[in-house]
Structure prediction request, 126 residues.
Amino acid sequence: MTMARKNTKISDTIDLSRKKVKEFDIDTNIKVAYKTGKMIFGKTQVLRQLRQDPFKMIIIANNCPAELEAQLSYYNSLIKSNIFIHKYKGSSWELGLAMGKPYMISVIGINDFGDSDLITLKDKNN
Prediction:
């Protein structure tokens, strides 16, 4: 005896409410951009590069010194096309750990995003 199957789709039997939605993780994307793209970190290196060739994006730590933040916004105002400056949610220690470094990093300048999705930060904040 064979039983007749109902004509139901597989998607009807799967509970889609429990499906995990992929969330944007900035720490992972920073590490991917560091490995596959081109990034410069550190106050002096970023400021030196900013005067010569502008970045596509700048990420600053939450506890970045106000003086450095003011300098970055000043240089940004002098450039024809403004650079997007993203304020990282964590401290400079956490930003350093996100890049896989055992020290504090207060500012990161990104020339090439590589395989990361950091460009979506620009769209989220605008």
